[in-house]
Design goal:
Chain lengths: 185, 406
Amino acid sequence: MANTAHAHAADAAGETRRDFLLHTTVAMGAVGAGMMVWPLISSMNPAADTLSLSTTEFNISGVAEGQRIIVVWRGKPVFVAHRTPAEIEAARKVDVSELRDPQKDEVRVKKDKDQYLILVGVCTHLGCIPLGIKANDPHGDFGGWFCPCHGSHYDTSGRIRKGPAPLNLEVPEYQFLSDTTVRIG
Amino acid sequence: MSTEKSIWRKAYEWHEERLPIVHWLDHSLGTKYPVPRNLNYWWNFGSLAMFMLAVMIFSGIFLAMNYTPHVTLAFDSVERIMRDVNFGWLIRYMHSNGASFFFIVVYIHILRGMYYGSYKAPREVLWWIGILIYLAMMATGFLGYVLPWGQMSFWGATVITNLFSAIPGVGKAVVTLLWGGFSVDNPTLNRFFALHYLLPFVIIGLIFLHIWALHVPGANNPLGIDAAPADKIPFFPYYVAKDVFGLGVFVVIYFTVVFWFPNILGDPLNYVKANPLQTPPHIVPEWYYLPFYAILRAIPNKLLGVVAMFGSILIMFVLPWLDTSRVRSANFRPVYRVFFWVFLLNAVTLGWCGSQLAEGLPLILSRIGTFWYFFHLLVILPVLGWVETPKPLPASISQPVMKAAE
């Protein structure tokens, strides 16, 4: 008999048929609730039209030597600096091992384009935009950028040198589509 | 077994002493809430309505995160939800069809109350609060339907707000106030969004009162007689289990529509952006308003039509006194039972009339239907209570069952 078989199985597991029904019902309810919560949470992630705005192209030939400009990418500022030979030299003679976030200047720029430094202009401390774009802005103690919020100093390679920020300014993914056109993202 | 209390038990008792929330829940919907043992599946629809309200609030909050209440952006923001937002199509279809299913569930809940006489003493206040919930639902549904800013949204908003222009003397001023301008425009859309977000929380408050008023006399039952304590069983686990089973069946039907027929209850014209300079040739409200729309159009006088339409709902407040019969359940009222089904059929016919152009047969039928609606409530119900001979009521819920077993 089916009932007898059930009773035996229950004895062996120390569980009754009612426990089994309760546990499977609760489990199915939890799965159902999870399946409903997932799309709701997922809807808060970037939508397709937001993701499609993930690249920005601009013409870099308009940036004169010594000039720094801001390009908007994903709603954030991207610093584009055309560095002078002196600035490049200052960035390269630093002893990398003494840096908080050790990184050579060479890996932060493209080969043969080392005058162009492209950085996400968001302080790695708490997200403010560091000053240093205009010539009369404060540039910090190392000639790069200075974050006015909590006093982080970045050098001419955008590396953190002094202040609370833990990391160098991020170098976004980008490529030179031609000598003059750059695509970020 | 050790008699020592566990740390969890102690923590629970410490908290319960300060805020007895588990105790309260247990008395509201748990083991301390006695319910008649003979409830049938028509009694599932109250909990289903609460489930649908939760679905509407949750899906609505996530829609609001992506919706823009501005006349130039609203329509496009809804299309963006449908196309670009992750699972936006699912959330919106759950919300738009959820409104229909909420009304289906509530209509069945109301009709169950009318069939089994749940509005009669001592449950009149419970019935009143139910009507208030229904009115709040109608307002919420209407406001929400305007938000996508399609052609039906716009012209529905125009027609419904113009109902208030029928008020003698101040009608025009009232409508201008509702609009915040001289036509349905951006200020109207803004306030409709704000109110559409507000009203569901008013409904939650009304549901608390509804359940409170339910707990004073306790639930009615299919026999309509007062249940003796011996004929009651605790809500948990018995009716929780039954409600959950019913919920499972309901969710299958609901999601079948959401996934496979998501536009079956909607009007395709609402996928055309609102154009304030062109009225569509045939405006219809959503299906759940159709019977009342038919009543409005049946009467060839602006003020009287509006009065009849609102009156057809407001009259329900005095239903407990219009129905003069002391017997609650239609199971023991052979004549009322026939009239109940005729009333339902009449309401469905009115609904069909409301979906048609107001001319020819539909207009004639909606006039007959409107007459019958009020005739049923104002004449048949009071008279029936006097002339009808009800079947003998059982002495208790268990008595007929015990007799059958003998």
